Amino acid sequence: MEEVEAHYYFKLKHNIQNDSELDLAKLEIENLMEKPAKEIVNFVDVLSEQPLKDFLAQKGIRPQDFITRLPYCGKLQGYYVRNKVKNCFNLIERLSYFREFFVLLESRNKNLVKVLLPSFNINDIEFMEDVAFYDFLPYAQIFTVNKGNPKMLFRFIPLHTLYEPSDFICDLSKKLSHVDRMFEEGINHIRREIYHPFSPSSARWFKKIGDFIDERAAPQLYLTHYIFGIRGKFFPRMISAIMNAAHISKGDWILDPFCGCGTMNVEATIKGVNNIGVDMQPLFTLITDLKIKSMHWDVNWLRENIDNLLSEIKINVESEFGMSSLSKYMSSRKMGSIFLPSNLMKGVKEDSLKCIRLIKGCIEDVGSEIPDECLRKDLQNFCKLPLAYWMRSMLKKQDPEKIINTYTDYLWKMFFSVYYFHKFRKTIHDFDLGEARIYTGDVRQLYKLNDEKLKNDEQIDAIITSPPYGTAIDYIGEHVWSLYVLDLTKNHLKLDEEMHIGTHRVSRSLIQEIKEKSENFTSLPELAQKILLQMLIGGKEQKASAFYKYFIDMLNSFREMARVLKPGKPLVMIIGKQQEMSLDGETVTIELGKIMEEMGKMVKLEHLSSIDILLQKASERGAIPTEHVIFFKKS
User: Fold this and answer.
1) pLDDT class for 498, splitting at 50, 70, 90?
2) Whole-angstrom distance, CA of residue 135 vs CA of residue 153
3) Which of 3, 48, 32, 53 is nearest to 101 (CA)?
4) Tens-place pLDDT, residues 401-442
5) At 530, phi and psi to the nearest 5?
6) SS3 track for 573-626
7) Beta bridge partners of 605
């Protein structure tokens, strides 16, 4: 076959948060293409020059209308790479920051098309002076032209672009037919609706799904990410790009020892990467586990069980609270047990608690005919999650009727996310799912978990994680009602004391170690020691104790992560770059990013580079305006 180089034009997504993410987008491209990328400030520039200029058309479906529609409005619009003709399906599967990309071949050799995308079958294309358009797959189209020499221009749409709108679809849908309709409309909009005028918020008529897709809002809860999100979670697009930047491939084993609600694990699984998730918060590991297990379930089976459950709940609730004329002939048959400590009972409404107990009792009976005990338990836990999402509000603010409506609505939306995933898998692309293992445990003691890859040294191909940003978020306190109602803890204070890295509930006795400059204290990076002494002098003993414990815990976490990582392999950490606090009337900055870089070096991790991502919002306790993405490699 003739040796031909191709021109690759990568167009950034229009809804990128801000220019600070462009470094990550460029890194993603350069690592996937294994070539340096040239910036495209404006696609009009490359359209006015060869070899793209021949594709400018005056009529019909015009390539320039695809290329210039919805550009990112920052300092540049994309990247250009010249490289040999290669199979592009890896790019279609993995690209995260790019709405689409175009590949130009200066040839009429149809065999080259088979290299670009082996699933293509294009015997019928022609090369004429006028530009011709061929629509082949949901993610692939071709333009051809012959103005002196034949050329082919391929438009490829990354799968990420096609499934991101599921976030909007699950949020907007009220019934399954809405998901089906918007699924088709969304895919068609991205493929073909290049002349669709955007409907602004002031428009007289209701918006279409295409209008939500065209907004600058970046979806975060697509596919089964939608099942549950927590404050401070990863931005999925960023994690997907980091996986590309870190050269992570199908079949690798990747670890997130602070997995939270499983953003990295979901992204890895759908890309065929094997993964392990660990977190000390049992609610989070339950969520992560279900997000991935539901990818394997039969959606008709799941829908039938949800229908049966909701019917049972309705009958029992109406009977218990007299909401039905039949209630006098019925009696409540199911009532789950719930234990809440006395300090959490303050403000809890009696009827609301009884309603939640009744829902829980019905859930504990769902799937009773399923012989597989593990599958039955997973189904029941899936049905409990809508309680966890709104638990505090349900207990203290909502009456029984509102609780039922809230629970029902969110359970269906969770189902819609699973249904969308399976519909996408069936009609657009059948994901080759990676294996996932999820554990509740302590990152400082990974060797205690029942997993050979964590018990033994140097078994993990990559680590991507985001530990707590100091003491900014209370991961126990924010979900304490859910932990009890879902029977995930008997003592949240013990869980907090033994497992929670970044808790602000610590003993002031630790302050003595700082004062005496104990061995633990002097083992910390100098930057950490300096800020702790500053807090101590400023009278912030409780704050100093909390951060001292956090730094010691993080150093021990680094040691464990370095132990399980293979030599030469990457560890990528996303951490708040700085946390600010008030001290003696002045604002003092805690350099979290730099402290983590120093800790990595202490455990023989080579610091390769760091990228700063500006956040749109700051955390509640101490402003964290910037995320710091640190790239390490084990020596």
Assistant:
1) confident
2) 12
3) 32
4) 999 999 999 999 999 999 999 999 999 999 999 999 999 999
5) -60, -45
6) EEEECCEEEEECCEEEEECHHHHHHHHHHHCCEEEEEEEEEECCCCCCCCCCCE
7) 634
Q: What DSSP element (H or E) covers 83?
A: strand 78-84
Nearest to 104 by CA among 161, 46, 179, 44: 46
State the residue for tokens 């109406």: 318
**DSSP alpha helices (H): ranges in 81-155?**
89-94, 111-116
CA dist 328 and 198 (Å) reads: 54
**Rounded Cα distance, 173 and 179, in Å:** 6
Q: Which helix (H) or strand (E) holds 387?
A: helix 373-396
Instruction: Supply 252's token pair.
Output: 């690798």
3-state secondary structure of 256: strand
Query: Which residues lie closer than 8 Å to 22 by C-beta, 6 or more apart?
Result: 12, 16, 74, 75, 76
Residue 617 binned pLDDT confidence (cut-offs 50, 70, 90): low
Tokens 């101490």 sit on residue: 622
pTM for this entry: 0.94
Check: CB of residue 508 under 8 Å from CB of residue 615: no
Domain positions in the chain:
5-162, 506-634
pLDDT by residue (tens digit) across 371-402? 999 999 999 999 999 999 888 999 999 999 99
pLDDT tens-place string over residues 586-612:
888 999 999 999 999 999 999 999 999
Cα dist from 154 to 134, 406, 577, whole Å: 10, 46, 41
Choose among 167, 119, 437: nearest CA to 276: 437
Cβ atoms within 10 Å, residue 39: 12
Q: How big is the chain, counted in residues? A: 635
Residue type at 384 in one-letter notation: K
Give the confidence band of 63 by pLDDT, cuts at 50, 70, 90: very high
Query: Binning pLDDT at 50, 70 and 90, where does residue 621 land?
Result: very low
Identify the pLDDT of residue 302: 97
Three-class SS state of 539: coil
**Structure tokens of 379?**
């189904």
